[in-house]
Amino acid sequence: MMTRSSGQGRLRARVAVFACIAVVALIVDQLTKYWAERTLSAGQTVVVIPRILSLKLVHNPGASLGMGSGATWLISLIACVACIVLVWLTVKTISMAYTVLFALAFAGAFGNLIDRIAYADGFMNGKVVDFLNYGWSVGNVADVFLTVAGVGIVICVIAGVPFSQKELEREERNFEQSDGLDFHDDPSFDGAASPDFAGDAERDAELAGELGEKRRAGGNSHDSHDSHDSRDANDSRESSRSGNQSSSGQSN
To answer: How confident is the model at residue 18 (pLDDT cuts 50, 70, 90)?
Structure first.
């Protein structure tokens, strides 16, 4: 069971990983947006991969695919709430995989939120700098981080990666109840590596020893009965012979 000190140490490690990834990702996002605004002119298209990816500067007031263009302030508020929730989830989880994914999602949401605040002429209604043109949509590096985080979280959920300590303990109990308790019967399993399994092996050995003693005791009792029966048979044969000899002597 995880102690309080070890739990706090792991929490500090996860927070440090979250902070490092989020900061680096935010810097990359903001630098690429700065480069796009200084390099790309309005209406210019630079082909990177024909029919797959090109560079085109667009200022997007909405979300992905231009959705919510008339409610930029609402999208900004949702982004604020999402950032707070992601930080809270990072504190709650025990998984480093989830921590990395939450950091990427935080960087993506906060990176676009910076644009909506920095370029706003009203209440958080600024436009996001997009420049990655996929043909069907135009996005930025922050959107890439959000997509990677979303796909990664779905994979973790499907794979059953434990999110919290309670989930981990529940999975361990289910594992012990299903297959875990049978491992000591496997010749390839080293029971000495686990005190619980070693204890089970010792108890099994004691039970086997007691069973062997009972069997030996039963065997000795059976042998004793056999010897008694053999002696009784011998005595009865000797008595029969003595009787025959007496009858023969009387007839003579």
So the answer is: very high
Q: What residue spans define the domains of the chain?
A: 4-166, 174-226
Cα angle 248, 251, 252; round to 5: 90
The DSSP symbol for 194 reads -
Distances in Å between the Cα of 19 and the Cα atoms of 5, 214, 242 are 21, 66, 107
CA distances from 212 to 38, 40, 185, 209, 217 (A): 87, 86, 19, 5, 8
Give pLDDT tens digits for 184-207.
Answer: 555 554 544 445 545 555 666 676
Which one-letter DSSP state was computed for residue 65?
G
> Smallest Cα–Cα separation from 36: which of 146, 170, 132?
132
Catalytic status, residue 143: yes
Contact 32, 141 (CB under 8 A): yes
User: Which residue among 29, 115, 130, 200 is the active-site one?
Assistant: 130
Q: What pLDDT digit, counting tens, does each position of 130-185 carry?
A: 999 998 889 999 999 999 999 999 999 999 999 988 877 777 777 777 765 554 55
**Is 182 labeled as catalytic in the residue annotation?**
no
What ranges in the chain are assigned the alpha helix state H?
4-39, 72-92, 96-118, 141-159, 165-178, 195-251
The whole-model pTM stands at 0.66
- How far is the C-alpha of 103 from the C-alpha of 184, rounded, in Å? 41
Q: Which of 121, 143, 200, 226 is catalytic?
A: 143
